[in-house]
Amino acid sequence: MTATTRPSGSTSPRTGVPRAPDDSLEPRELGAAPRRPAGHRFRTRVLTPYAMIAPAILLFLAFMAAPIVYTVALSFQRVQVQGLGLGSGARKTVFAGFSNYVAALDAEFLASVGRVLLYGLILVPTMLGLALLFALLLDSKRSRATRFSRLVIFLPYAVPGVIASLLWGFLYLPAVSPFYFVTDALGLDAPTILSSDLIVFGLANIGLWGGVGFNMVVIYTSLKAVPSDIYEAARLDGCSEIQIALRIKVPIVFPALVMTGLFSLIATLQVFAEPTTLRPLTNALSTTWSPLMKVYRDAFTRDDLGAAAATSVIIAIVTLAMSFIFLRIVQKRAFGQED
Amino acid sequence: MTTTASTHIRASATSSATTLRPSPIATGILIIGALYCLIPVVWVVAASTKSAGELFSSFTLLPSTHVFDNLAQLSAYRDGLFWRWMLNSAIYAGVGAIASTWVSALAGYVLAKFAFPGKAAVFSILLTGVLVPGVILAIPQYLLLAQLGLTNSYWAVLLPQIISPYAIYLARIYAAAAVPTDVVEAARTEGAKEFAIFNRIALPMMLPGLVTILLFQFVAVWNNFMLPYIMLGDDTLFPVTVGLSGLLNQGASAPSMYTLVIAGALVSVLPLVLLFLLLQRFWRVDLAAGAVKA
Amino acid sequence: MHSIKRGIAATVAVAALALTGCSAGGGDDGPVGLDFWAWAPNVDKVVEIWNEQNPDIQVTVQKQDGGDPVITKLLTALKAGSGAPDLIQAEYQKIPTLVSSDALADISGDLDADVADEFADGLWSSVTLGSDAVYAVPQDSGPMMFYYREDIFEELGLEAPTTWDEYAEVAAAVHASDPSRYLGTFSANDAGWFTGLAQQAGASWWSIDGDAWGVDIDESPTQQVAEYWGGLVEEGVIDNKPMYTPEWNAGLNDGSQVGWLSAVWAPGVLSGNAADTAGLWRAAPMPQWDADAPATGAWGGSSTAVTTQTENQAAAAEFATWLNTDPEAVAAMADVMGIYPAATDAAAEALTTSPEFFSNQEDFYDVAAEAADTIAPFTYGPNVNVTFSAYNDEFAKAAEAKTSSAFLDAVAEMQQITVDDLENTGFTVE
User: Fold this and answer.
1) Chain A within 8 Å of B128 (Cβ-Cβ)?
2) Residues of chain A contacting B124 with CB distance shorter than 8 Å
3) B78-293 in CATH: which number?
4) Residues C188, C391: contact at Cβ < 8 Å?
5) Nearest-by-Cβ selection for A152 from B34, B123, B135
6) Which of A303, A304, A305 to mutate: most C Cβ within 10 Å?
């Protein structure tokens, strides 16, 4: 594989190939090489990478790590009230042990996880499949209207999830939707998307609409990083465009696909804006439809930060575990032969 | 050497394009995908031309004539507050995206091109940021920024959004792909300082990828709701997302200002579309060609 | 080591002073600056009148989202010690929650004794929580009324229902005339609406008994209301979709929603969402359970409260009093904000001509005043938000199930969730 992807120029052989987070070794890395002379120069070379990554680390510590630690701390606290709980000093924050966690893992939460997994099962494969298809078609020399298509398919990414849901909400409501207008005119009995049975498809559609372009561009960018003389060679060998796509391009972008898959999976578990915006339009969505909606309800409707924090921590741990398992599974297949 | 290679690639690409027949199926699939993406856009454009009465009474895709009335009303709303929101969004997204892209590029470059103790750990820890839902993070971020007296200010929205694990992740990929180790080594042999190598050599090579990151960050900040919602009390500091949400949720006893919200939503997306169009040519640049310019 | 720490602390403190100074105003010389979080449209225009007349106390309206999250935002700012406004527009049902979180200042010492006389007893008790403290000044109220399409009623030969039995008959007649038509909808999304209906039937979901809270949701008045609506939905003569959706707006426009059980502020919503139907609607008193003892509920309505973080409590209380009792301010609120001011007498003076949308009905405000007089007493508890989100979830299920028994189950669930929450937080529940 490596041999065929190696370009004639000086570019790194694994160009544009995203790697798993724990796969940190780059070919021919730079750094504190032993052949460098010791002394001042050496010390600079050792410290330089740390100096250069310092801004990211500091910002991370201040605005992500510290709030995360704070969230964990909050998850072990709860508000304790006495009597009527009115007037100043009636509320105090007390150590809660694991009670928030025990309370968080209720049937409501598990049901919301189940719904979101179904949602992800519908959305992620569809979205990535289409994103890959579109990226390959954009990259294909036989497609036309690629500039237009690329821009338009990417366009929904510019639309915030809340606004996208508002727009699709209008399109889902029979009384104001052009779809239902058309089906009514044709005398067809169209299914109600905003019903309990179909709502998950309606939500997946909004996710697909907003996300397919983004993933397409990521995959397309990684396709573009490969010098085209590889394909040229394949063409000279008599490969068709479809064969080139399946045998050369897909394996090249597979790691990119893995990572977009991972990030899509994470985004799926954190789905929030779409169901929250659609909820007022239908009886089919509860205030705890997705795990993050439950977090939001606890934090912003019930003002129960402890419960919200505990649920958040659980979501993060589950996400981490699932990401890990996901990477383990695909890594064996994707990167296995390289080791 | 690089120049020859690249010329060769371009020459062969041109020649092959002329020999391959266009495929109607391939083009057709792309067009169908594009049309699907356009449906809600067509709807919102049509809806933005309607008066409040027409919005709920006429056929939804039929345009009307009130687009300028709606825009005028939107502009008139509380002495042009909407445009202040747009300006705020531009500041948050513009400054935030540039800062974020630079920080991410630096981090991504270091992670891709240096070996140093603790690198794997640093990268893994940075990536865990992706796992934490932003909804809950906003409240602790507020409580921490309040300690510095920075809430209810531009800083409160700008600072937390500079760090983006996803952008760092992408930057690392682009740096690994686009910056040849030989070039860095050569510059180093000539005695260039590391920061200079990054700024003068690596950054231009990574540029096409960085434009993508810039775009993603710009969109992420522009569309963020929860962080500015929690951080800001002063409505003249609101970004357009938080401002429009206020027009939609005025309590049960006042109607949602749908016509303003729809017109506002359309206007608020235009700068992003414009940005996509302007930066589009950067996406076309072959990453391998970057070495030639350097 | 210690000196370094102290140095950092001092720097942070100085920075904090420099950066937060803008909203505090305070100072010995310059005018007092007050921040006012509100969501009601056009409240800034009324505040302008105050600012012109009171150069020493300048109020800045910071318009917020009208949803629940603004409360969390406020409580977060209070917890952090900075960033909260001086004044906040608070719905009546949020007051116990806010008081319980120590967010609202007791302004009883800043008010004249006669301020209470401006308001109906029921409204005043919801800002005092039955104590000697005063946590807010009532701003507007939302006596519930019944609205219907006069033209369609005439066409079908129907009269406005005066009792709930008649309402059921009219609902059946309307739906029979055209299956796409409904006299109304049971909205699982509007807990405040259902609360008003239960209030009319005699429910009061919370009660204070000495040092303990009582929760009385799953009692006969609320059960009666739930069973009634469950029956109508089960029969199919009443729609089961939420209100305030684009679809519902379209229904108001095209005449498929023939009636609306709403409140006095309905003209503003109707003119915004169904502008083309101006002059076609008529307001009537709510249908009654007992025609001999007329009663109604309240939906919406809010107060102006002073937060515990303000440094200018007296000035803030002075403004809140002016906004809600001064005849000029009250008239301006009624006029530009389109609300029904809580100050009874001042409101009666200000509200003489019917809203433009109801130009066909001269006695609009007579009907409203009658309704306002018959609002049944109701006590809110410290966890209204929990109860309201339980309403959303449980009644959404019931409305989908479309059975009367599911509606009754939903009421029982609301009771259970509310009591559990209170007990878990440590409140004493009797």
Assistant:
1) yes
2) 21-22
3) 1.10.3720.10
4) yes
5) B34
6) A303
Residue B59 carries which side chain, given as an amino acid letter? Answer: F
The pLDDT tens digits for A118-152 are 999 999 999 999 999 999 999 888 888 888 898 89
State which residue of chain B sits closest to C243, comparing Cα positions: B252
How far is residue A268 from each of residues A29, A116, A144, C7, measured CA to CA in Å? Answer: 35, 7, 33, 46
A196 with C400: Cβ contact below 8 A? yes
Q: CB within 8 A of B168, min separation 6: which ones?
A: A56, B104, B107, B108, B111, B126, B127
- Host H or E run for residue C142: strand C137-149
- Contact call for residues C22 and C31 (beta carbons, < 8 A): no
| CATH class assigned to C143-298+361-425 | alpha beta
ipTM of the complex: 0.84
Residues of A near C (CB-CB distance < 8 A)?
Answer: 78-91, 103, 169-170, 173-176, 196, 279-288, 297, 299-303
What are the chain A neighbours of B122 within 8 Å (beta carbons)? 53, 57
pTM of the model: 0.86
Q: What is the DSSP secondary-structure string of C31-89?
A: -EEEEEEE-STTHHHHHHHHHHH-TTEEEEEEE--SSTHHHHHHHHHHHHTSS--SEEE
CA distance A242 to chain B (A): 11
Nearest to C427 among A85, A169, A300 (CB): A85
Dihedral pair phi/psi, residue C91, rounded to 5°:
-65, 150
Q: Nearest CA to CA, how far is A224 from chain B (Å)?
A: 6
CB count within 10 Å of CB A46 equals: 14
CA atoms within 13 A on the CB side of C259: 32
- For C108, left (φ over 0), alpha (ψ -120 to 50), or beta? alpha
Question: In this structure, what token pair is assigned to residue C286?
Answer: 């709510």
Determine the Cα–Cα distance for residues C170 and C183; give it in Å rounded to an integer.
8
Written as tens digits, the pLDDT of chain C (430 aa) is 344 444 444 444 434 333 443 444 444 568 999 999 998 888 999 999 999 999 999 999 998 887 777 888 898 898 888 889 999 999 999 999 999 989 999 999 999 989 999 998 888 989 998 889 999 999 999 999 999 999 999 999 999 999 999 999 999 999 999 999 999 999 999 999 999 999 999 999 999 888 899 999 999 999 999 999 999 999 999 999 999 998 899 899 999 999 999 999 999 899 888 888 999 999 999 999 999 999 999 998 999 999 999 999 999 999 999 999 999 999 999 888 888 999 988 888 888 889 989 999 999 999 999 999 899 999 999 999 999 999 999 999 999 999 999 999 999 999 999 999 999 989 999 8
Are C286 and C371 spatial neighbours (Cβ–Cβ below 8 Å)?
Answer: yes
So where are chain C's domains? 2-141+300-350, 143-298+361-425
Q: Which residues is C90 bridged to in the sheet?
A: C303
CATH of domain A106-338: 1.10.3720.10
Nearest in space to B243 (alpha carbons), one of B93, B87, B82, B72: B82
Closest CA to A84 of C92, C96, C416: C96
B249 CB neighbours in chain C (<8 A) are: 39, 65-67
CATH class entry, domain C2-141+300-350: alpha beta
User: How many angstroms separate the CA of residue C425 from the nearest CA in chain A?
Assistant: 5
Q: Are B288 and B199 in contact (CB under 8 A)?
A: no
Identify all chain C residues contacting B152, using CB atoms and an 8 Å cutoff: 20, 23, 83
The domain locations on chain B are 23-65, 78-293
Q: In this structure, which amino acid lies at residue C175?
A: H
C-alpha dihedral sign at A134, A138, A144, A149: positive
